[in-house]
Structure formats: structure tokens, C-alpha cells
Amino acid sequence: MYFWLWMAVFIISLVIELATVNLVSIWFTVGSLFALMANQLKLDIAYQIVIFIILSIICILLIRPLAANYLRGNIVKTNADRAIGEHVTLLKPISENAWGEVKVNGVLWHARSYDNKPIEQGARVEVLAIEGAKLVVKRI
């Protein structure tokens, strides 16, 4: 009788996982598979439910962080993020009360120094971060 219950949970959670591919219900698929095996071993329904709950929780707590890191993959820098780490020449000087200017990958940016110290025009700088519409730079 409970065979069909666990089979339904297995199929429904598997279909949901295949439809979303976001590690949403795979844990319940694993739990229901083991509960289904417990059913075939003629264990009481209480044991089947405990097996389902415990294995689902174990999968969520132990495997999800590993799988999430693996599935995240390499993060490719796009658009503005590509400017970080670039070495460029300062086109306009940075002073205490004025932003400088740099050109990174063909795009003109306002720039400020990371330590708020002046940097003269023509100096080579490294882009450390992006703050709003400005780049934070340091002298190389």
C-alpha cells in the first residue's frame, strides 16, 4: 500500500527537479528512494517515514553546499567587472577635491584613489574596485 505513496513522492520530486534544475527537490527524491527500499524490506511505515525525513535532511545539509559550489562553476567577469585588475594610465589627475579620469577597455571612467591621496596625470594605476560610477585605483 505504501509502495505507491513512496513511488509517487519519488516521481513527483524527480519531475520537479528535472523541470527546475535548481536543486529544489532532489533531496526528497533520494529520501523517497530509500523509503521505497525500506518498504520493500517490509519495515513499518513509521520507520519508512523516519528514513525519508532523515535522509532528506542529511542530503540537504551535507550535499547541497557541495553541489551548489560545483554547479556555480566559474564566474566570468562581464561588462564593467572586467575593468577590475586592469593597469591603465591616468588621463586626468586625481586631487583631494576632484576625480581623475581613466580609459578602460575603451570606456572613459571617473576615478578616485583608494587612499584619497592625489595622483598625477600620466601615472600608471591599477583598478581595484568599482564604486557606483567611479573606479577606485591605486598607483602601480
Structural class: alpha+beta
Q: How large a portion of the residues is in β-strands, by DSSP E?
A: 15-25%
Instruction: Please count the beta strands (DSSP E, at least 2 residues each).
Output: 5
Radius of gyration: 28 Å
Series of H and E elements: HHHEEEEE
Structure report:
The protein is built from three helices and five strands; from the N terminus they run αααβββββ. The protein is an alpha+beta fold. Strands 1-2-3-5-4 form a five-stranded mixed beta barrel. A hairpin with a 7-residue loop joins strand 1 and strand 2. The model has no long low-confidence stretch (mean pLDDT 89).
Provide the descriptors you would attach to this structure in a database record.
140 residues, alpha+beta, 44% helix, 5 strands, five-stranded mixed barrel
Question: Could you give a quick summary of the protein structure above?
Answer:
With 140 residues, the protein is of the alpha+beta class. 44% of the residues lie in helices and 23% in strands. The mean pLDDT is 89.
Sequence-ordered SSE layout with sheet pairings:
Elements: H1 2-20, H2 26-40, H3 45-72, E1 87-92, E2 100-104, E3 107-113, E4 124-131, E5 134-139
Parallel strand pairs: 3-5
Antiparallel strand pairs: 1-2, 1-4, 2-3, 4-5
Helix pairs in contact: 1-2, 2-3
